[in-house]
Amino acid sequence: MIRFVTGNEGKVHEAREYLDESVEQVDYDYTEIQGELKDIALYGSRETFAETPGDGPVLVDDTGLFVEALSGFPGPYSAFVEDTLGIERVWEIAQREENRRATFRTVLAYYDGETAETFEGSVRGRIVAPRGDDGFGYDPIFAHDGRTFAEMSTAEKNAISHRGRALAKFADWLAERNE
Amino acid sequence: MIRFVTGNEGKVHEAREYLDESVEQVDYDYTEIQGELKDIALYGSRETFAETPGDGPVLVDDTGLFVEALSGFPGPYSAFVEDTLGIERVWEIAQREENRRATFRTVLAYYDGETAETFEGSVRGRIVAPRGDDGFGYDPIFAHDGRTFAEMSTAEKNAISHRGRALAKFADWLAERNE
User: Fold this and answer.
1) Residue B62 known to be catalytic
2) Which domain holds residue A80?
3) What is the ipTM, given to two decimal places?
4) Do A121 and A161 form a contact (C-beta atoms < 8 A)?
5) In 10 A of CB B33, how many CB atoms?
6) Overall domain count for chain B
7) For position A179, what pLDDT does the model report?
8) Is A34 on the interface with B (CB under 8 A)?
């Protein structure tokens, strides 16, 4: 049994599609540190393991959008930047750059009290003018294969998503480990 | 004796000008969490107190530039934004706003194992096109009374600075407490 630390039930459903083991949702508000996605997720997994009852392994995810021409901005602080600048302004900044390549990254951190591992999934795309009504966050300005994430259904998005790719890697690792 | 947790010797000198007690520099790389300046500094002061030898009270500072029209961006992540977007782009974004007011804030957190207190100092100004060769960080785009911080000497800047104002509050509190 894996304890997925998230307030988002949708993520738990997505994890269940990849993993053979059962997945339980743990709603714990762990400390988010400043740093790279990997460091943030690892720190959160260790803290949650130490501070919550139960001794099953925990899984923590952290996600960010990294714009190449902006040295990886907004990266780990994507949520803060969305709340302050807003995605329209991120588009306006990127619009002035010739290189509009960007990558959505998710890092999953697993911790069971002894073993700590991280798994990264990413999707490459481009920053475009906002389009589409679905999704959330940066979805309207992130285009992959000609369509923005906000123009895709949840199922379509999950099929190519950074989180899905990280979950697939984690599932492989877990399956090998349990053999 | 106060242990000021910073890699910057200049800050220690500045603190000595305000405090009657002796100030010792502690170079400890505490965990910076995501959150408000106050939370970041408090967390750092508690961690440093717990993790470093010695039992004197510790002082941790955190500083950010808050642009009013951008909901407080870049705020606690000013260093990250400087390293990725750069201050030229912050000016370009602010330039499109009618309201160019901004505030430099410093929060000092004091922790002695029992008492935790924070002290905030701030300076109001405006975001302007980069000017001046002195200072560092956002100094060239932050103007106070017509001049940017990068057009002032360190002494002039310290005389009106956010950190100085926070240090003055802290000094008052400490003096009353020691009476």
Assistant:
1) yes
2) 2-178
3) 0.91
4) yes
5) 21
6) 1
7) 79
8) yes
